[in-house]
Amino acid sequence: MIPHFSDHAANERTYLAWVRTAIAVMAFGFLIERFDLFIAYASTSASHAARKLHLHLRTTEWIGLLLIVFGALIILLASARFLRNRRDIALARTEAYAGPVGEKLLAAILVLLGLFLVVYVGQELAALGTQPET
């Protein structure tokens, strides 16, 4: 029998939840980075759209790349937290709870990203609505 098995199992479940979240963030980043294909197909006029298209491509590439890096960082931090908790459980040490700083930071970054995407897509929809039909 493994001592403190339920604690180790809970620690592992938490770690796997963080990894799933990180994979979802990285997949979303990849999707946004590939969003440039949609923008390329959606653009219709050549001269004005070409300049604007380049700006959109750069924006989606940077946002996508940042999300992929952010997902990798989540995995790195989750791994460090998992190993620290595993060691503390095995040594039966009582440590003070550090607080949900990481969780609050993740939530804040994702909310800011969501707001940015709402504004970004909203501006694009408004711009498409004001373009003259050809």
Question: Can you give keywords for this protein?
Answer:
134 residues, mainly alpha, 83% helix
Describe, in plain words, how this protein is organized in 3D.
The chain has 134 residues and is an all-alpha fold. 83% of the residues lie in helices and 0% in strands. It is built from four helices and no strands. The chain has helices spanning 5-33, 35-42, 47-90, 101-130. The radius of gyration is 21 Å and the shape is elongated. The chain starts with a helix and ends with a helix.
Can you summarize this structure?
By secondary structure, the protein is mainly alpha-helical.
Proportion of helical residues: over 70%
Shape call: elongated
Structural class: mainly alpha
Amount of beta strand: under 5%
Mean pLDDT: 79
* DSSP helical segment count: 4
Query: Roughly how many Å is the radius of gyration?
Result: 21 Å
Largest sheet: none
Distance between the termini: 74 Å
Uncertain runs are: none
